[in-house]
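Supplementary Methods S3. Complex input for the KG4-bound model.
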Amino acid sequence: MSPARTVLGIESSCDETAAAVVHGGREVLASVVRSQVEEHAAWGGVVPEIAGRGHLQALVPVLQETLDAAGLGPRDLDAVAVTHRPGLLGSLLVGLSAAKALAWAWERPLVGVDHIQAHAYAALMSLEAWSFPYVTLIVSGGHTSLYRTESPLEHRLLGSTRDDAAGEALDKAAALLGLPYPGGPAIEKAGREGNPRAFPFKRPLLEPDSLEFSFSGLKTALLYTLKGPGGRREDPTRPEAASIPDLCASFEACVAETLARKCLRACDREGIDRILVGGGVARNLRLRRTLADLAAREGREVAFARPEHCTDNAVMVAGLGHALLEAGRVDDLLLDARAR
Ligand code: KG4
Ligand code: ZN
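Predicted complex, serialized as structure tokens:
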């Protein structure tokens, strides 16, 4: 085996500008995440033009802070890993251009990383030892998919969302409820004291053997609950304050249970007893509890990415970058950014 190497990771696919230095694919030497949430909150979601400009302003200071925190210079780094897909094109290009410039100037290999695979790697990083295969659930603002994972680099898609991602559904539900962006944490906070059975939203499990997801009907169900059938009632534009905790808890419970049941369905179909969960929504405590409970009842194990590694970060990019480097899968300076 080759000696463990030290990788600089760069992430700029959405609205977080992040850099990290990771040794041996596991040991975090430094990690800095600059979120643009405040800039986008006024618009109720991520605005691509604002995100691109934000990365341009933030990236150099974030890189400097990361290297300072690690106490390392270019000579101590073995490779530069960067998210090059999928994401907002203008945002990806900022991180990718910087990574290419550094790889060229420092004469180090450039390693292009897939953002979804990086979220899965974040979940693997929470485990002391790996035991493949796993069923992997990636749940974020842009993605909701199940995979069969054979190694850190091999993920076969089992099913994906037909419409909204789970995080997107939470973000849109929060907007309907008059709660701030991002909606996932806002709904979690507002629903903490609520009754998750107060509004029995139908779980969108689809056909009995389906490993796909669909959250757009749930969003409509919330709208009709708030504004009457057809969603046309003019007022109230805001639900009664008293019912917000129950609405949030019920909506969140529906999303959590749906995600959990699909994971177990995938385990049944693939004959696998171990589950990995990553992505921003994996931070959600109700999802963590629901899935852990249901899995335990069936004698199955679940590993979630650490909370700080669920939402976008560069630790997972540097970590997966190390695995790619070990496998000899490095890129040249012609590496492209791909939105999808
Ligand atoms: O992974 P991520 O940072 O970005 C994407 O790759 O999309 O995920 C962001 C998403 C947002 O939709 C946000 O509402 C959701 O993750 N999220 C949460 C929580 N924290 C972030 N959803 C539920 N509960 C949370 N605590
Ligand atoms: Zn992400």
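Residues 79 and 331 are 11 Å apart (CA to CA). The chain is about 40% helix and 20% strand.
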